[in-house]
């Protein structure tokens, strides 16, 4: 076996992603040489874990939720674990039978049929945001600030039923929770865990008030739904209602934002694909799929083995943590032709960007819709586009975040 490239590269350290982006060379080497690779973490760091890098293995594990659990940890950290039970588990931290019961309470709200009902409103929210960019024929902006950041939080704020004036607050809180390890979002004098916890308290205090309000004045929104949900004939406890608010706002915000930014960056780097979309607008849906594969906003989620399990000759023991590297699965040569090319007409595109199996992303249709709206209102008008400065990445090994995407563009006149 040849030596692994970048031997010292830490696959779960937030800085790796901020400095180098995704470690594609290392993942490729692992897929070919040691796809079920045990990573020993030093004393005083996070847990040692199995790095799973092949598409087939990520799928095999994700489709056996009773053998590979989401509890007690959803991510592998590079610091000692500091878990307390002061916050309730959200959907994605649950295992069966509870997970299936809870998932059923919400899944219907995000199905295509339900979204069709809201399509026009979501389209209006998206169009208003993108329209600000296309007022003049030339422009320069940070695409994250102008489009990919405001769009998902506006849509989620609207879906939840939060007043428009509060959307910036939601935006700030989710940034601080997901980017707790990022210097730009970190409160001075606090560790990432303390910072995330303090933000969660603020977020929960806010939502507790809002939920109280929804009980008095129900509306057709998600917060009202959370106050009315029942399990075994009983309404959910306040903490469980809060956990719903949290998962929707956290899971639906940074992911979509980074999928939209990552896709835009891919278009900027591959202008021929913008032309291709302009020539054939029916490629919008496959283009969004390719943007999700290409950017793979969720870098990894963890599982914990509930029993001994043999995978590719390696003996995984009960209690062992595993990291599923979706970004690696999405470049797997066994599944994708020419995986390192960004091709908007890729078909089939069995990417793992939204996960696979039991916990497959509840919001995938919504995310696709938002990304389609962002691109469809902008890309057909692009004459030229280029980077106007360096791309800055988030310090996180959970969400592969683009913090800044400065672009300069020239638009075609409206036909
Ligand atoms: C491009 C955008 C998005 C990406 C890349 C993404 C990715 C993912 C991934 C990888 C998972 C875990 C799947 C697994 O373990 O197999 C997940 C779960 C989840 N996502 Fe998304 N997501 C996105 C947008 C959204 C949106 C817009 C929402 C809702 C508003 C959402 C809500 C959820 C929820 C609730 C779960 C947990 C499902 C469960 O545990 O059963 N996501 N997402």
The name of the CATH architecture is Orthogonal Bundle
What's the number of structural domains? 1
* Number of separate helices: 15
Structure classification: alpha+beta
Radius of gyration: 21 Å
So what's the CATH class?
Mainly Alpha
Looking at this structure, what is the CATH superfamily? Cytochrome P450
The largest sheet, given as strand count, sense and whether it forms a barrel, is: 5 strands, mixed
The average pLDDT is 92
Instruction: Give, in spatial order, the strands making up the sheet with the most strands.
Output: 1-2-10-7-3
Tell me which oligomeric state these chains represent: single chain
| Poorly predicted segments | none
- Helical fraction: 40-55%
N-end to C-end Cα span: 58 Å
Bound molecules: protoporphyrin IX containing FE
Report the count of strand segments: 14
Strand content: 5-15%
- Give the overall form: globular
